Amino acid sequence: MRRKTISKQQIINISYDIFCKKGIDYLTARKISNIGKFSTFPIYYNFSSINELHDAIIDKILEQINDHFQYMSFQNIAQFNFEFMEFIQDKPGIGLSFFENRYFYQKLNQELEKICKITLLERPKAEILDYNLSFIFSICAYFGYTNYSSEKAHVMLQIIMNSFATY
């Protein structure tokens, strides 16, 4: 009987799907192999450690964020926040991972700071930008830890963002 061949890209894709639903801390070799219906061998054959696989997934998430925001520009922070909320609404694992995994927190924070500086037409003061990043991660928490609907999140976000939408 011929064995099923599992590529590195297939492992990344399966892991990415798990990450988006459950978060990075849910990504173990056993869970990935069970969901993918293969042994753990291809994981350890293609990656020197589970951390190397985590890095590949984080890189894929950051690449998607960059691709999503690449040609956008925003008049203010509120518009950026609305767009980011739309991006993550079907990816609760991003919110979970942000709060549960320090390494992912640092990588995402650095990337969002760069994106804010590039896409915002009006440059906010540094303290406003820092506050905004904290706010974005609060949005991540809503999507990561609750079944918050996009409509309810928009209402909540609009109320809060009105306080500093002019920055």
Walk me through this protein's architecture:
- This protein has helices at 8-22, 29-36, 41-46, 50-69, 77-88, 92-100, 102-119, 126-145, 150-161.
- The chain is mainly α and 167 residues long.
- Helix 6 packs across helix 8.
- The mean pLDDT is 77.
- Keywords: DNA-binding.
Short key terms for the protein model shown above:
single chain; 167 residues; mainly alpha; Tetracycline Repressor, domain 2
| pLDDT < 50 runs, ≥5 residues | none
> What overall form do the CA principal axes indicate?
elongated
- Percent of residues in helical segments? over 70%
Spatial gap, N to C terminus: 64 Å
Strand content is under 5%
CATH superfamily: Tetracycline Repressor, domain 2
Count of domains: 1
Number of helices: 9
Radius of gyration: 18 Å
Report the average pLDDT across residues. 77
> How many beta-strand runs?
0
Q: Helix/strand-derived class?
A: mainly alpha
Largest sheet: none
Helix and strand pattern: HHHHHHHHH
CATH topology call: Tetracycline Repressor, domain 2
CATH architecture: Orthogonal Bundle
